[in-house]
Specification:
By secondary structure, the chain is mainly beta. Helix content is 6%, strand content 70%. It has a twelve-stranded antiparallel β-barrel. The radius of gyration is 18 Å and the shape is globular.
Length: 235
């Protein structure tokens, strides 16, 4: 049921007239996983951004896949979609969807729907920082026990970008989804160096933490990535 709800909402957003113009990037690389998994795996990431007047939309698909002795031993895929409506140059409303199925995690899946208010706190040539806060709902299932955790959450999000030079950019994204049963936190740090206008190299470090897990499962997982990035579209 959570999957059907999320897919339906994503299709509705993708059918809206906010998709008049787009840009995006595709990433491919190597992942080193430590935590509930100890492996080296492949990483694929696709990001699509759409802008039209006051509307903006960001869709991200991220997949991690690993094999050991000919058998699949690790897999993760995450689909997220954030739709924005600008109230002013600095303020906006946001609707956020996320579906996370992660064999690394203590959860079989986590699916969230949230709305909120966003604010661009810093907007200069070199630095950009925005923050979002609002209520939502989460559907989740613990891997070992199969217990469902469906609850109201508070979602917070910070997105920081530093254009260090013409060719180098540092990014950091922090997401928190907090409820009575579990709080999910994710911080993703990335450093990219442009090879040319379309191609760049990117290293990343991601930390994911759940406060409520089954006995014997670790609360924190990390990913270290090295990716080749291709930028496309009008962005």
């Amino acid at each position: 049921m959570p999957t059907r709800i999320l897919v339906g909402l994503v299709v509705a957003v993708m059918s809206a007239p906010v998709l008049a113009d787009f840009s995006g990037k595709g990433e491919l690389g190597l992942v080193v996983a430590r935590g509930n998994s100890e492996s080296e795996t492949g990483n694929v990431r696709l990001e699509l951004n759409f802008e039209r007047e006051r509307w903006g939309n960001e869709s991200i698909f991220n997949a991690v896949y690993g094999r050991d002795s000919g058998e699949t031993n690790n897999s993760r895929w995450v689909l997220s979609n954030n739709t924005r409506y600008d109230l002013s140059e600095l303020s906006y409303l946001v609707g956020a969807l996320r579906y996370d199925r992660d064999r690394f995690s203590a959860f079989s899946y986590q699916s969230t729907v949230a709305v909120g208010y966003g604010r661009r706190l810093i907007k200069t040539e070199a630095h950009r920082l925005k923050a979002e806060l609002g209520p939502g709902f989460r559907f989740a299932s613990l891997r070992e026990s199969g217990e469902s955790e469906n609850e109201v959450i508070l979602r917070g999000f910070l997105d920081y970008r530093w254009q260090v030079s013409d060719s180098t950019q540092l990014t950091n994204r922090f997401l928190v989804e907090s409820g009575d049963d579990n709080t999910f936190l994710e911080n993703t740090l990335g450093l990219s160096v442009a090879v040319n206008s379309r191609v760049s190299l990117k290293t990343g470090f991601s930390v994911r933490h759940n406060t409520d897990v089954d006995p014997g499962r670790k609360k924190t997982d990390t990913l270290t990535t090295v990716n080749l990035v291709y930028n496309f579209g009008n962005g």
